Amino acid sequence: MNIVIDGEQIQTDKTFPVYNPINGEIVASVPDAGEKEAKQAVEAAHRSYQAWKKTTADERAAFLTRWFQLIEEHTDELAEIMTKEQGKPLKEAKGEIGYANSYISWYAAEAKRVYGQTIPASKPDKRILVQKQPVGVVAAITPWNFPAAMITRKVAPAIAAGCSVLIKPAEDTPLTAIRLVELAIEAGAPAGLINVLTGDAETISDVWLSDARVRKLSFTGSTEVGKLLMKKSAETMKRVSLELGGQAPFVVLADADLDKAVAGAVASKFRNAGQTCICSNRFFVHESIVDAFTDKLKAAVEALKVGDGMDPDTDIGPLINQGACDKVARHIEDAHSRGAEIVTGGGTPISKGSLIMPPTILKNVDESMICMKEETFGPVVPITSFSDEEEAVQQANNTPFGLAAYLFTENMSKALTLSEALEYGIVGVNDGSPSAAQAPFGGFKESGLGREGGPQGIEEYLETKYISLGL
Ligand code: ADP
Hints:
This protein has 471 residues and is α/β, with parallel strands linked by helices. It is 39% helix and 22% strand.
């Protein structure tokens, strides 16, 4: 597959392969773009922006709606590409295409609701007008765990706001991104409005981040890289949105509905084999129900079908690469060696050389174990118990991260007060899948800056202009 710059498909002499994590086969090769292509893309995006910023909201909405329709028509094809490059089960991949597309339809409508303000002035011969204008050229750097949704979550609001976009998808999963951009061109995106480049991440991002014409960085990925890119963005004072790592606590109170809690645990933990930034990572369960919860969860986990994502029955596919499997194994071994008990699963892949790790439950874990301190990014449920709810919340907050938290209780008063006490950007109360296009997604603390989705998500791509009008 080729990259897309200025509406043209571009090849380069050097390419790199994209592997299928289920069998290690090469799915396709993509261009290894460098400085030259990165600069060309900025030129194109900047040129395109000059025209796009003058379009009406109706025109922008019409383009997004055409793109939405094409993506919908190509759902099966896109889902297959995604499963092949990423490994997630086909049914999840189809779900992700629908979810990714929901950002496009939602922001097609939201484009028309970018309102300004008039504010009463202190002098009779003055008027205060507040307008919203697009921020300019946007650089979007995305991870491999949601090859479609992480693109549309940034591109749809940016385009709706009147910006142009440069995309650098993750090297493991560039194919879905490229196909999405091809469909955008087919839907009538003007040349240069949406560009996608594959190649060395640092080389490409250095060109984009040092160029003053790029006015905004929207990044999803690790906290470490997010901090680095934020520093580089400071040089030209770019606006930044960062959606970084999580360490989601999953708190189950004594009065919780256990069936809801188990369903929520499976939904929040095992999506994409545990490789999402809002995956529950630390389970705090009240001591009076910890055994019952663990037993029910064990039954639910053992019913999950592991295997090739292309098999329509598969619930859990392979992890993205060997490094991801090694990390999961290390977390399980560390916990086991410090006294945790393996209830089901374990730290070895289901067969030699496979990247499929069995879904695992650990009990009797404690705060000293790596799995309670670092994001595992794999199918592991570490369970600890508590007696005091306030202490559980304190433990849940005891991390530099603050993206998503989950709370299970039937007591609505506790649901609200404890949600307010949790230092997290997203709290799922009796809900293991809180993400939605119309809701603001983002983190507190070292989980990032800014929000994606909802009315907040388009603000990230808008500047506020104050016009003081003397009459
Ligand atoms: P993950 O742990 O999800 O792979 P990363 O932060 O490593 O997260 O990667 C997220 C995105 O950031 C990918 O597109 C990757 O290519 C890009 N990236 C990684 N390192 C750098 C870097 N030093 N400079 C710019 N982009 C980077």
